[in-house]
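[PROTEIN RECORD]
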Amino acid sequence: MILRIGTRGSRLALAQSEWVRECVEARHPDIRVELVRIKTRGDKILDTPLSLVGGKGLFVKEIEESLLRGDVDAAVHSMKDVPTELPEGLGLRVFPEREDPRDVLVSAHGERFEDLPRGARLGTSSLRRGAQLLHRRPDLTVRSIRGNVETRLKKLASGEVDAVVLAAAGLRRLGLQDKATQLFDPAELLPAMGQGALGVEMRMEDRATWECFRFLNHEATELRVRAERALLARLEGGCQVPIAGHAFLEGDALLLKGLVAELDGSALVADEARGEAARPEEIGTRLAEALLAAGAGGILERVYGGTVSHP
């Protein structure tokens, strides 16, 4: 039996999909897994900040189209790239155990965030990271940089920026964790929804493929990601606004923290919600409503032109 996994062609995406391939083949010796590289719109547009590109699913749409056509049997995604609304007939069926969800600072001269000189140029493609860090250090200059992990590190090495902020999971999966100068605690820099987590998407009717992958599902990861995505769904979040959300399991309970910030970090609305871990979507929606009522709705209205309702 041959299974085809659709994946982006970046080194990180291939490393993630290769890990899944190895796990499946080790579990099912009678199955051979092939990786099919698919270029997405987000991979093609590298000279424009994601917040200005517009649209959702910049890094998954073409892969999902291949799934629907039957060209591939499954897709491995970084969950922070996956919109909350999936095409009809497709579903996220498997969530492997989450990697480190935190963000890291890589600075040119080994400085920690607090020690960066005034006016230092901080490189990031994420409005979420930029807004939260500007809230702590409004003296910094945030530069939008695109490209894969290696490209961003090269821009740091060339002196284009003084520091970059990246996902710890990406560095670890590429074996580049020694590049990190500082790991941000979630209390300092709240991660993106789904950061560090992978999701395996497939056709809902394809039970045979699901049976091949289901052993990889990690329940704790699934519950946390479902709560975070419910928060994102209610806020109708995308690349155009700084939104963050991160869930923690506490026994049978789940704690979800979230925030919405102004683009320049001048204002930040944060809150948290706790509930039964078995009801993650309820917790995510409840937290979203609390954030909207506390002022996040005004921020979102300014960004989205009033398309998000709030109490």
